[in-house]
Amino acid sequence: MATNTHPRTASREEWLLARKKLLVKEKELTRQRDALAEERRALPWVKVEKEYTFTSRQGEKSLPELFAGRRQLLVYHFMFGPEWEEGCPTCSMAADHFDGSIVHLANRDVTFVVVSRAPLERLQAFQKRMGWNFEWVSSNGNDFNFDYHVSFTKDEFASGSAYYNYNNKGFPADEAPGLTAFIKNDAGEVFHTYSTFGRGPEHVLVPYSYLDLMPKGRDESGLPRPMAWIRHHDRYGANP
């Protein structure tokens, strides 16, 4: 919404009538979201037969070891390729909010881990720069990112038809974001239960949730592409 235009000015009483009308739609959306979450939990599970070895600050870890004693594992696929000098700015905006959630997730039997293909030393250097503390492991040298369709070979990327978000429309980079959920049963077997890509994980971009409440919204219409305004938090000007 342009700053020099806005909806009509109304009395408080008129505003309240309009707000209550919108509230009906908001409540319906909430009920739909709850029903969708229930359907999501009812999806069938796929047993993970393949073994993966990740590099962590504690040494090498298998996928079951990433659970850290809990039954559920949530992986954020952070865009940071092996040859990249730094992580994706948009993933970084999401990551700015990870640390505060970890203790709450742990108390609901969920371990949260970030996975990228960049070597561990590069991940650690960038993590130190950003001031983050969450568990970030490297999948460099294994097929995890490729098997879960968030990394693409050079040929896949060049073809413009890489498989991402359940179709072959490609992606504008050789790394892509996403969220993947796993569960481990009493026998120690790991199952893949859910993955979401594209705008599916958008809720982790917390500032967008706030911007959607504001009169100007996301204010991206004049940009060359959505999210073009996002920077690493140490790269914004002092007076935005």
UniProtKB/TrEMBL annotation:
SUPFAM superfamilies found in the cross-reference section: Thioredoxin-like
Pfam families in the record: DUF899 (PF05988)
Protein name (record): Thioredoxin family protein
Organism from which the protein derives: Pendulispora brunnea
Origin organism lineage: Bacteria, Pseudomonadati, Myxococcota, Myxococcia, Myxococcales
